[in-house]
Give the backbone structure.
Amino acid sequence: GGTIGILGGGQLGRMLAISAAQMGYHVIAFAPEDDAVIAQVCDEYVSAAWHDAAALKAFADRCDVVTLEFENVPAAPLDAIADKLAPHPRALAIAQDRLAEKRFVTDLGGTPAPFHSVDSREDLLAGIAALGTPAILKTRRDGYDGKGQWRIGSLEEAEALDLPDAPCILEGFVQFECEFSVILARRADGLIAFWESSENGHEDGILARSTLPGRAIIGEQVAEARKLARAVADKLDYVGVLTLEFFASESGPIFNEMAPRTHNSGHWTIEGAATSQFENQVRAICNLPLGDTRRVAPRVVMENVIGPAAATAHEALRDPGAHLHLYGKIEAPEGRKMGHITRLAWPEGDSNS
Ligand code: ATP
Ligand code: MG
Ligand code: MG
């Protein structure tokens, strides 16, 4: 038993709450929205502003442990509840800032895309001179699903670009064969479990699908990527689930970004692995033994259900190997993650008939 607090109200928290409830925990969530999708499945939902330090403290006082499903929580108020938080706010401070996270992984021996800090037009032009084109300008903070990013094809485009009013980072464009992620769960005693790395396909900057097994190049590069992920987790004394995204390139795995939480590319683990990323997040933060992470079907594909596609998503269930997850979001604008479908496949095909 015990009470688990979740910061953030989105689908990652919702799936975490479902796992925690299954294991008998009382689950309370905290987020600023009035209509958070986590509220539909947890025991109690507190809606308050992130910077409401008193509300946050009162929330944490009621919990045995607090974790998060959303990393862009302002880090400063979290220091007051750091003793309850898994992962510790030091992990957030780094993962919230693309510049800080690239420097951090570089120090640990990782290789990010070549980058240049950009706070002005002058910086941008110097960055283009150093990195060439094409390049990608990203806000250092708050980006997700490709938001807050601008592809720059030429010096002229860099000169004409409307610069965002926020600190940015310019990244050289990585020529990659495919993308993959390393997702791990780590307990306070340092024990780590990795899931198999899926091949991640993006469309319009949004994850479209994760496929297992992925291409051969992932198998060739995953050991090096895991070594970096382990170094990151150990350095941060990380407790919980941690994700690192990589580009598989000719010159080895290139670090893209990290997330101090479960990840969309790990949704396949709910039905496709012996223990899901959400269940192992609960186990890790509650100091329970970690579950076996192995894949349980020869082929697993997770497809995101994005925007209006949600209206017909149930049609996927004609495939008996398919599992549908919808997150309870009412509005379905273009580009919004509404749910996902995980398909497990065996070579002998349909065993129901
Ligand atoms: P997420 O929803 O994963 O948090 P995000 O908004 O933080 O996304 P990134 O992961 O930085 O965005 O970029 C989104 C996608 O854009 C990447 O998965 C990749 O397909 C492409 N991309 C980003 N940076 C680069 C780069 N330097 N070179 C080539 N492609 C890139
Ligand atoms: Mg990101
Ligand atoms: Mg990303």
In short: The chain has three domains: 3-85, 114-172, 176-345. The longest helix spans residues 216-235. The longest strand covers residues 176-186. Residues 113, 136, 138, 143-147, 171, 173-174, 179, 202, 205, 245, 256-257 surround adenosine-5'-triphosphate (ligand 1) (CB under 6 Å).
